[in-house]
Structures are given as C-alpha cells and as structure tokens.
Amino acid sequence: MNQLIDFVFVSVILFSIGIYGLVVKRNAVRMIFSIEIIANAANLNLIAFSRYIHNVEGQVFALFSIAIAAAEVAVALGIIIIAYRLYKQIDVEEFRSLKG
Amino acid sequence: MVDAYFVGVAILTIGTSILALESKELIYGAIALAISLLGIAGFFLLLDSTFVAMFQITVYVGAVAVLVIFTVMLVRTQDLFTIKDDKGRKVGGIILMLLIMGGIGAIFLVSGINNPMFGKPDSKPVDIVEIGKSMLTYYSPALIVLGLTLAGAVIGALALARREGLLKENESVN
Question: Domains of chain A, with CATH numbers?
Fold first, then answer.
C-alpha cells in the first residue's frame, strides 16, 4: 500500500530537478521544460493530498492548474519564437536588450 | 511499503525528466518530457484520479508536448547544440538540487504526514460527479475567468508570434 509520503517524495525530487534545470540551463526551451516539471510536481502534490484527506478541491485546483500551465506554455513559446527571430538564438544570456 | 507499479512509474518519471534536461538533442529532450508527463498521469491513475489523469494526457501530452516539439523544430539551428553549460554553474546547480531535496525531504520526514494513518487513507476515492458539481457551482466564476484567460493567452501568443511584413515580402517576391 502506498503512503502519502511516497508521493510527496517523488514530488520533491521532481521539484529539485526542475530547480536544477532553471539554475543551470541557458537554453530557453530547456527552461520551459524545467518550469513544466515544477508545475507537474505541484499538481502531483495536490492530487496526492486530495486522495489521502478525501477532498474534492485538490482535484479541482489541479484541473485549473493544468489549464493555466497550458496557457503559460503557449505564451512562453510565442516569446521564445519572437526572441529567436530577433537574436537568431535562444540562449537566454544573449537576450541583452532588457538587461538592467 | 510501496508496490512495484509505483516504483516503475517513479523511475520512469524521474529518469525521463532528467533526460529532458540533459539530452544532447533538444528534440529528444522534448520527447522525454512528454514521457515524463505521461508518468505523472500514471501517478494520478495510481491515486484513483482518473479524470485528472485523462485531462493531463489530453492537455500536456496531447497539446503542450506537441507545441514544444513544433517550437523546437521551428527554432532548430546548429547554434542550439553548441551551447555549453558552465562547469562551475553545473556543480552549483547540483549542490542546490541536493540541498533542496535534502532540506524539504527532511522537513516532510519529521512532519505529521509521515504518519501512515495521516488523513483518511482508507476512504473511497473522490467521485467524478463531485468534481463536476463543484466546478459548475461554487467554482463556476473561476471556470469562466479561466476560459477567458486561456482565450487571452492564445490570442496573445498568436499576436506575439505573428510575423509582420510577411505579406509584403511575399508580394515583392512575386
């Protein structure tokens, strides 16, 4: 029988992998991958707690979260495409126009 | 104790999410990310949340992964594969990852949810009818706002990626 803590641990591991990707990678598409992994870790937590404390809200919030993540990916990929068109690359360290 | 299905899905999900970040070719990373998202859907099935699992497969594996793969194809150049990660930054990132893993993991280990009897573990799974009811009654304003947000985001993404002057270029070629 699986316990809540097992799912929480998988979620923590996925979250740490996502943070690693955000910190290390310079490729904008890979950063999107990292954000997706982090969002999924959060969703896994929501569903796991919803199952173990028998609560509907967890699943409803997970559905909302998935929909918002889809919108976010669409906008982020649009930004990446326009940045690629401007700079001819997707290395985030080369996007210097907005640098303070 | 965990069962074999859980271990299999966990290894699949974590392995492919590492592969998504570390694979040489970006397109293989995109495919690995899709498999990782499928693994998350497997966890949802394991947690008796079939509706959310199907939603996850439809939205993430069906839409987001395909969108990412198309973007990777659009921005595909040789430059993408020559980006080298900074060695020092990579080591720092791995140390940060282990610190977060250890820190949050230790907090959860000493917290109350480590108790096997946390919550109501033997309760029946949440009924799909309850999800529908709460979405259409109490959370209906949020659902409407969510729909508007999605429409706005898609229109915004299209407006961002629109290529201005394409018509003129084509006309001048002709």
Answer: 4-94 (1.10.287.3510)
